[in-house]
From TrEMBL:
Leader sequence residues: none
GO terms for MF: transmembrane transporter activity
Primary location group: membrane
Family: Belongs to the SLC13A/DASS transporter (TC 2.A.47) family. DIT1 subfamily.
Source organism per UniProt: Bombilactobacillus bombi
Keyword flag Electron transport: no
GO cellular component, one term: membrane
Residue ranges crossing the lipid bilayer per the database entry: 7-25, 45-67, 79-99, 171-193, 213-235, 264-282, 288-305, 317-340, 346-368, 442-462
Name under which the protein is recorded: 2-oxoglutarate translocator
Coiled coil: none
Any matching Pfam family: Na_sulph_symp
Length: 466
């Protein structure tokens, strides 16, 4: 494996050097554009094959633009001073508090206690709990690591054998609720902010918390309802009679009454979500809301200075920042204009009509996922290819962010979805079978397109399609 990383890393560097310094600059592109193009090729090879940590690759890419004089330092690192970066930092800190205090576990277990202790009841509980919790934590891996052990406890208490149909179904219900439904809310995952950040500023205003929720509401309803039916068709055991909910009650008893820290965190997150919804109406930046919320949690000693060191994924923040820098720099060096001419014959048919786009673009993304594993890297590559076409398409380019964020999250094969891998690691690979992964992912891929198609009339009513 080490040799494979070394070989692919060398190939990436050699290709970058050749493109930057030996390939003649095509008509319509500057040498600065060639340097940025070369860095993108090298960086993507490093990201695909995990040659070095993703955030290090991103930082080296930004540094290479400055060292090789493609752009100056302020242009290269401009993204780190934007509101998008601060909302990501603030959101991750709020999520860290929700996990640290046990608030998330309590909400999930409480919802489960209201539904029957059967496959139908508890799979529905996991879907609902995940959807409710999603906007509180903008990071998939903690949600995956937290939800799948709960699903395992339920599966064991219901008497399901490891990797049986029913056990696989409980695992996938956790993934579906806590990870898949992230696309419903802007604040549910950092990748939503990353893809939004790749848009030109004039289009980003469309994607406020409230508008995102409304634009995705048909998809949310369809994905929840059809997802629940799909999991029951694929995985429900023949004998699905309810049993005692002792496991759930025992877990709640262990937690004891709601602590002071949980109550403060719950209030802060609830108030933050309300202000995110009202943000555009009251002219308050989402980042300010998040940072004030974090300040309250620190002042109330819910979060400490050490928590900022250990409970916030700074490498993820840096990686997202370096990825978002690409859009502005590509435009600055003229790479978007050049790519438009090159990609026009392929991209124009896909973007010619919104109805075609919501069918064809997800399929293209599904195919890309077999090669580019990282969710953010896949979405970034697609956005960069589409960026030159924003001024010519018949709908608001912000809609592409919604299509991309729902479509990158597939798990046909074990390696294709990092949060699913995290979930499997959290239960020592004892719950879901390979066939269970493949069947549920294929079902989601179809449901996703149906959900997006049903969103189109809403997008028309909102004036986002011309």
């Amino acid at each position: 494996m080490k040799h494979m990383k070394l070989i692919t890393g060398l190939i990436g560097i050699i290709l970058g050097v050749i493109i930057a310094f030996f390939v003649p600059t095509p008509a319509g592109l500057t040498h600065a554009g060639m340097i940025v193009l070369a860095s993108i090729v090298t960086a993507n090879i490093f990201w695909i094959f995990s040659v070095i940590p993703s955030f290090v690759t991103g930082l080296l890419m930004l540094c290479s633009w400055v060292v090789l004089k493609a752009v100056d330092f302020p242009t290269s690192f401009n993204i780190f001073s934007t509101t998008t970066m601060w909302i990501i930092i603030g959101g991750l800190a709020l999520g860290a508090a929700a996990i640290k205090t046990g608030l998330i576990n309590r909400i999930a277990l409480k919802i489960m206690s209201y539904l029957p202790a059967s496959f139908r009841g508890q799979s529905l509980a996991l879907l609902i709990a995940g959807t409710v919790i999603s906007p509180m934590i903008p990071s998939a891996h903690p949600k995956s690591a937290m939800s799948t052990p709960i699903a395992k406890g339920i599966s064991d208490s219901l008497g399901y054998k490891p990797k049986s149909k029913a056990s696989s179904g409980m695992f996938m219900a956790a993934i579906w609720g806590f990870i898949v439904m992230e696309a419903s809310f802007l604040s549910a995952t950092a990748q939503n902010y990353a893809f939004k950040g790749l848009l030109p500023v004039k289009y980003q205003g469309v994607l406020t918390w409230g508008k995102w929720f409304i634009m995705m509401l048909p998809w949310t309803i369809v994905t929840l309802v059809l997802g629940y039916l799909l999991l029951n068709v694929l995985f429900k055991p023949k004998n699905d009679k309810p049993i005692s909910k002792d496991f759930i009650h025992q877990q709640l008893q262990k937690m004891g009454p709601m602590s002071r820290e949980e109550k403060i965190t719950a209030v802060v997150i609830l108030v933050a979500i309300v202000f995110w919804i009202l943000g555009s109406a009251i002219k308050l930046e989402a980042a300010i809301t998040a940072l004030i919320g974090v300040s309250v949690l620190v002042s109330a000693k819910v979060l400490t200075a050490d928590d900022f060191k250990t409970k916030i994924s700074w490498n993820t923040i840096i990686f997202i920042g370096t990825v978002m820098a690409l859009g502005n720099v590509m435009k600055t060096v003229g790479l978007t204009t050049w790519l438009y001419k090159i990609l026009q014959p392929v991209i124009n048919p896909i973007l010619s009509n919104i109805w075609i786009t919501v069918i064809a673009l997800p399929i293209v993304i599904y195919l890309c996922k077999f090669v580019v594993v990282s969710l953010i890297s896949t979405g970034t590559l697609i956005m960069l290819c589409l960026l030159p076409f924003f001024s010519t398409i018949s709908f608001n380019p912000a809609l592409l962010v919604l299509i991309i964020t729902t479509s990158v999250n597939i798990w046909m094969l074990n390696y294709m979805d990092a949060p699913v891998i995290t979930g499997q690691a959290a239960v020592q690979g004892s719950m879901v079978s390979k066939s269970g992964l493949a069947k549920s992912s294929l079902g989601y891929m179809v449901i996703n397109i149906i959900g997006l198609l049903l969103c189109v009339p809403v997008w028309y009513m909102m004036g986002l399609v011309h």
